[in-house]
Amino acid sequence: MQALDIRPCRLDAGCEALRQQVRDFLAEALQDLPPAERAKSWNGASPAFSRRLGERGWLGMTWPRRYGGHERSALERYVVLEELLAAGAPVNAHWIAERQSGPLLMRFSPEVLAPRICPGIARGEIYIGIGMSEPDVGSDLAAVRTRAVKTAGGWIVNGSKVWTTGAQRCQYMVTLLRTAPRDEANRHAGLSQLLIDLGAPGVTVRPIHNLLGEHDFNEVFLEDVFVPDDFVIGQPGDGWKQVGAELALERSGPERYLSSTQLYLEMLDAATPDDSHQAIGLGRVVARYAALRQMSLGVAGMLARGDNPATPAALVKDQGALLEQSLPDLAHDLFGGRCEPGSDLEQVMRYVTQVAPSFSLRGGTREILRGIIARGLGLR
User: Fold this and answer.
1) Residue 65 burial by CB count (10 A; 0-12/13-18/19+): exposed, middle or buried?
2) What is the pLDDT of residue 363?
3) Which of 41, 282, 341, 379 could be joined to 374 by an S-S link, Cβ 3.0–4.6 Å?
4) Residue 283 CB contacts under 8 Å (≥ 6 apart), including other chains
């Protein structure tokens, strides 16, 4: 079995000074945001808030200045993410674009798409959705059926995507599709990524409402959509390689274990100081948070060094989802019989209980992640 090397990573004094700046800003910006809204964590969206972050230079922090970035360190960006998540800030409008779409464009279209798109992302004005999943193909991305056919000056795209978060407010969608016939001997061949303008003729976005009636997800239908050659990301046929790099960014951040933070904070506020049962239960959560934070920081350090964090990122995501999904059960065990109806704890508990099942689906199912971990450790 191969060893999994996640080195300890420490934050310097500059990072901690930045942390206080972010806390001061959030104390003012979110002073009227109730706990039930904070419980949405990074699923809450506010374009106005995203623009405020852009104005302060807290989006695109690590990017080159030519792309609208600020050339700060990956660890400084990590500190900002931690504080936003801990506060339950409404970051979802820009989240995907800043987290993975911008870096994807800078890596694979540095002269064409990145200069055109990334500065708007860094200002908190351009949002991008992920067009990977499709109806009836499950987690098998190699089975995508959306196709692009070459035509003069570009491509004609037909197909559909599902579970596209935020497509109702996004300007673009990074789309995995087939640009060559499927080869059973190499199912990953012939896949490409195109950046599709969601306002283009032939694009239809339809809402998918979740258990709470919220509109987070969407189906996106593509009917004879023209995509210019300039909007091919990387080279045709390199889509599978590029998706792997993109998913490593999606799985490595602190959002993979901090989605239920507001519920934990409400439990702390409601706890009785001399109740040993509550103290033990809440203390064990702190220990798990501490371990996950060190692992996640280690992944941030790998990104800062330019290492490939695919396996450690999958491990953080898998174990983080287990922690997040355990908190509603813990809240019920510690406070279920004594929770006042309509209280902040009751509202947050109810919300997190209903959304927690999704935590082991988004960013890769638990089965997919554990396959990645096993392969990375040489176990399969």
Assistant:
1) exposed
2) 72
3) 379
4) none
Count Cβ atoms below 10 Å from residue 334 Cβ, excluding itself: 21
Overall pTM surpassing 0.85 (yes/no)? yes
DSSP 42: G
What integer pLDDT is reported at residue 178 of this predicted model?
Answer: 96
Query: Residue 171: helix, strand or coil by DSSP?
Result: coil
Q: Are 45 and 92 a contacting pair, CB within 8 Å?
A: yes
Three-class secondary structure of residue 148 per DSSP = strand
- Mutual angle of helices 13-29 and 74-87, in 10-degree steps: 30
104 CB burial (10 A radius; 0-12, 13-18, 19+): buried
Read off φ and ψ for residue 207, nearest 5 degrees: -75, 150
Domains in the chain (CATH in brackets) are: 13-126 (1.10.540.10), 130-237 (2.40.110.10), 252-376 (1.20.140.10)
List average pLDDT for each run of 10 residues in the chain, which is 380 residues long: 72 94 98 95 93 98 97 93 95 95 96 98 97 84 91 97 94 96 82 97 95 88 98 94 76 81 95 95 96 88 78 88 94 88 94 89 80 85
Query: What single DSSP character describes residue 191?
Result: E
3-state secondary structure of 208: strand
